[in-house]
Amino acid sequence: MSYRPDKILPLAAFLLLLAASLTGCGGYVARRMAQAPNTYPTWFAPRAPVILCFNEQFFTNMPTHDVAVGSPRLRLHYRIVEPLDYHFAVTSSNWLDHGKSRFQFNFHADAPGQSNAWTGKPRGTVVLLHGYGVAQFAMAPWAVRLAQEGWRCVLVDLRGHGKSTGNRIYFGTRETQDMSQLLDALAERGDLVQPVAAIGESYGAALALRWKGVDPRVGAVVAIAPYAMLSNAVVNICHEYARWMPLAFPKAGLERLPELLGVPPEELDPVSVMAAHPVTALFIAGGQDAIAPPAEVRKVFAVAGPAS
Fold first, then answer.
1. Pick from 171, 164, 185: which is nearest to 76 by CA?
2. FRET pair for 174, CA 20 to 30 Å: which of 86, 202, 236, 260?
3. How far, in Å, are 47, 159, 189, 208, 232 from residue 236 at the CA level?
């Protein structure tokens, strides 16, 4: 079965909703920005340029768990990928579709996996944090690859995503508490093995950087395409998925969003958070990434801790 990110609502979808219901109120736009992505209809999403293909039965071999976290209280859905030999392999292809680049990655893995040298003694724990509007499946290839190398991996649906609950997202300002309470639950179950690392992509990358800054248990961080400023990411999404949308609409929402979430405006921008609390991380940028291009990632890297 193919899991396509275009079937899960990305951040641009709320912009399409505005065409039918916008009243000119910045507060309305802000509320749509903060609305949990998993509450939007999936048919509303524009087509994404990347398709991830794997068999849906693969996940049945990885037990799921739920833990109560956060404020307001919500249920966080996660699964553990144990260190095993999954015979993991990747094939990829790319093509042009009406002048736009398209990519397809096919992942092969055998599940349940076979024991390897790390099965009885994992090298540590890696928590994988997905991007906005998708869910844990988007990070599954990284989890299986790392698990094969000996790490116990934790795939999680962030609040308001996938099968986790929560009516509103907070762009990392409250999600760090969710992640720390997830570590508490893992430790209580005996599933937490030190050291702890975090790998995040886009929205998840911004969260991983924030999380390391407030939780000393988090060691290595890999930040794949973190955005520097939320406003820049939103504008780039408009250009990529909704060129017809006047930028005055999302800008009005961005002005009201800090008030809605109860945070200072700078708290929504990873570059400001990192400048105040620098952490060391590995940064990865994609040359064709239209949402968080290399120039944006470099802004975050410029204020990161030494040895980043």
1. 164
2. 236
3. 16, 24, 42, 22, 6
Q: Does residue 87 come out as left (phi exceeding 0), alpha (psi in the -120 to 50 range) or beta?
A: left
pLDDT tens per residue across span 214-272: 999 999 999 999 999 999 999 998 888 877 778 888 899 999 999 999 999 999 999 99
Q: Could you tell me if 10 and 132 are in contact, meaning their C-beta atoms sit under 8 angstroms apart?
A: yes
| Rounded-to-integer distance, Cα 238 and Cα 17, Å | 13
Distance CA 38, CA 132 (A): 10
Q: What are phi and psi of 208, to 5 degrees?
A: -60, -40
pTM of the predicted structure, to 2 decimals: 0.90
Q: Where are the beta strands (DSSP E) in the chain?
A: 2-3, 50-53, 64-69, 74-81, 89-97, 100-108, 125-129, 152-157, 196-201, 218-224, 282-284
Tell me the CATH number for domain 2-302: 3.40.50.1820
Q: What is the pLDDT of residues 84-131, one digit of tens each?
A: 999 999 888 889 988 887 888 888 899 889 999 999 999 999 999 999
Residues pairing with 284 in the sheet:
224
CA 63 to CA 45: how far, in whole Å? 29
Q: Where are the domains of the chain?
A: 2-302
